Amino acid sequence: FDVPLDRGNAVIAGRINTVNRNVNLPLVPRVQVLGDRIALFNTVINASSVYGGGTILVGGEYLGQGTTPTAQFTFADTNTRIRANGIGNTNGGRVIAWANNTTRFFGAINARAGNLGGNGGFIETSGKLSLDVSGIRINASSAFGSPGLWLVDPIDINISGAATSGGTFSIPTGLFSSDNISPTANILDTDIIATLNAGTDVILTTNQGSISGNGDINVNTILNINPPVSGATLSLLATRNININAAINSTGGFLNINLLTPTVGNVNITGAINTRGGNFAANLGGTFITSGSIATVGGNFTVNANNSFVATNSISTLSNTGNSGNINIRATNGSITTQDLRSSNTLIGGVAGSVTLNAPVGITVGTINSSRTGALLGAGNSIDITTNGLFRANNSLVNPPICAGASLCSYGNANSGKITIQHGGGIITPFVVGGATNNGTLGGIYSSGLLSSTTILVPPAVNSYFAGDTTIITAVPPPPIPPAPLPIEIFSLLRNPEAPPTPSPVVVGTPPTIESIEPFLDAVPEPQPIPPPSPIPILSPSPSPSLTTFPTPILEVFPLPVLLPSPNLTTAQFNQFTRDFQTGRSPLPLPEIIRPSEANTLCTQLNQLFSQDQNFEDFLCSEFSRD
After folding, report:
1. Are 371 and 403 in contact (CB under 8 A)?
2. 98 partner at 20 to 30 Å CA-CA among 189, 448, 509, 570?
3. 172 phi, psi to nearest 5 deg
4. pLDDT of 503
5. Which residues, in sequence order, are bridge partners of residue 9?
6. What is the tens place of the pLDDT at every residue in 95-115?
7. CB 322 within 8 A of CB 347
8. Which of 326 and 263 is assigned the larger pLDDT?
9. SS3 letters for 553-618?
């Protein structure tokens, strides 16, 4: 029964009945109300069945997905009733009210299980840009099976005592129009409470839309919930942050609370939370911060934070009517800082909950109590702490008496829990039990016995310390990983060049004889005279400018290097000496450089090289003759 199939306007004011009570007709009803703008006035749509509740789509499919045409605006007044209940022992059905722009649904939606069994159904009321569900009545409960679910999916959500303003439909200005669209849906606290009290789970989820909005969920008013004995679940799934600014309490059956921020969102809690046996679970991409106390009264407490965990108030899973819940806290890339953690138990024959803490940067607690004390038998539970940083327990327990003075206690009448602490003090910071100010516990550690006033030496003296059921492990940083070997192909590029041949030894300090240098002296050619320059022609006078003549440069002749007779006279000094003489500068006195005994030999050698320059010969010999 489709009204209508094409995209247009759909206005219904009446009854659509597709109920199937015939067990011989195995059909599950399906109703689609589709169009670009949909309005339901005093409308009743019934798709209940003995084969389970049917499917009713108003404005689109789940989250607007699939090929089903979607509406831009969906409206239902307070007198509209939609039913997709199971009959007998069958499950509830599916009801979707969707709009790409604005949904305002003020009527009642039921997707209950049959009265003889079955599970509750699924209900969604969502507006992609704006949502108003003030005064809505939701019921997807089950008397004998699992509760059904109500999903709300706007951009931002405030749970408060005031309804959403804006998004109204004004027929006089046309069939439909929207005014003052708000990305924040103000959902009445009374609507949430009534739905949970009826035994229907509630999921509030946000998305970051194309208009303003952050994808936050804010609980701004106290939620005192009285679920049935079978319990109920409140789930908050935010694109960004979840802020619980008021208390959430169960006064009846257990209340499960799930918090999820899958990307970088944080969870901030300032109100106290009591789940009365329900589980508290949070998975978030940011940091978990609570200043309100959290008590589960037997339910488990589990937090997985991508960054850090901070609790400035107590966290307790203590129960005196059943076994206590476990406490599991993981800060994947950060630290854990919390006050007292209590998973102890006082029930006769009861079992305490375990405590597991894991954070790479460091862990700081007040006290940890996972003991079971009291009359007759009972069991404590384990405490497991793992960190690459330092661990510190800042306080000491006062009660129960057997744990008094201890910072950590897992004692049990019948069985005590094991206590394992792995810390990152390494070879620098020892672990101190009793009076620790940096790494260790202020009080003792009590498992099957009391460990107190102990300083555990750092490795390599002690890597693991054992005392009864208590183990303290000191983690030592691993050695650095060596670089990967170079590929064989690169070795040919890294080979050193071949070593040069070793030169023949040179004897230094022994002057050569005349006979030894004569072959070299004979091989030196005598310097040739410089030819006179050609005469410069004299030009006849002419009116043109006269040419400027330049003197022909005199070529400077440098003597060829000779085998020096003394190691005290270097080749550079010899050459400098000859240059100074030829250019008219006072040469360096050779007698200050060479020994007098070598002067005659050198003088004879130089005379042969400069035999045509009498001035040089006279000056040189006169210089040597001084000595």
Report:
1. yes
2. 189
3. -60, -30
4. 64
5. 37
6. 999 999 999 999 999 999 999
7. yes
8. 326
9. CCCCCCCCCCCCCCCCCCHHHHHHHHHHHHCCCCCCCHHHCCCHHHHHHHHHHHHHHCCCCHHHHH
**Spatial CA neighbour of 341 closest among 376, 309, 308, 387:** 309
- Confidence grade of residue 61 (pLDDT, cut at 50, 70, 90): very high
| Rounded Cα gap, residues 616 and 599, in angstroms | 15
Please give the structure tokens belonging to residue 510. Answer: 């022994």
| H-helix or E-strand spanning residue 624 | helix 614-625
Phi–psi pair at 139, nearest 5 degrees? -150, 110
The predicted model scores a pTM of 0.74
Helix (H) or strand (E) holding 621, with range, is: helix 614-625
pLDDT tens figures, 116-137: 999 999 999 999 888 899 899 9
Q: From CA 481, how far away is CA 487, in angstroms rounded?
A: 18
CA dist., res. 359 & res. 337, Å (int): 10
Provide CB contacts within 8 A for 483, sequence distance 6+: none
Question: In degrees, to the nearest 5, what angle opens at C-alpha 598 toward C-alphas 592 and 599?
Answer: 65
Cβ within 8 Å of residue 549, ≥6 positions away: 536
User: Could you tell me which residues come within 8 angstroms of residue 169 by beta carbon, excluding any fewer than 6 positions away?
Assistant: 39, 73, 75, 104, 176, 177, 178
In degrees, rounded to 5, the angle at the alpha carbon of residue 309 between the alpha carbons of residues 305 and 314 is 130
DSSP H stretches of helix in 117-244: 189-197
Q: What is the predicted pLDDT for the residue at 459?
A: 84
Element of type H or E holding 623: helix 614-625
Mind listing the pLDDT tens digit for each residue in 138-189? 999 999 999 999 999 998 999 998 765 433 333 334 345 555 567 788 899 9
Q: Measure the CA–CA gap between 210 and 146, rounded to whole angstroms.
A: 36
Q: Is 149 exposed, middle or buried (0-12, 13-18, 19+ CB in 10 A)?
A: buried
The two tokens of residue 141 are: 């409960």
Q: Where are the alpha helices (DSSP H) in 466-534?
A: 491-494, 514-523
Model pLDDT for residues 371-394, shown as the tens digit of each residue: 998 767 889 999 999 999 999 999
Q: Which alpha helices (DSSP H) does 86-243 contain, by range?
A: 189-197
The single-letter DSSP state of residue 64 is G
Task: Burial-class residue 22 by CB neighbours within 10 Å (0-12, 13-18, 19+).
Answer: exposed
Other C-beta atoms closer than 10 Å to the C-beta of 32 total 20
Secondary structure of 3-55 as H, E, C letters: ECCCCCEEEECCEEECCECCCCCCCCCEEEECCCEEEECCCEEECCECCCCCE
How far apart (Å, rounded) are the C-alpha atoms in residues 447 and 419? 7
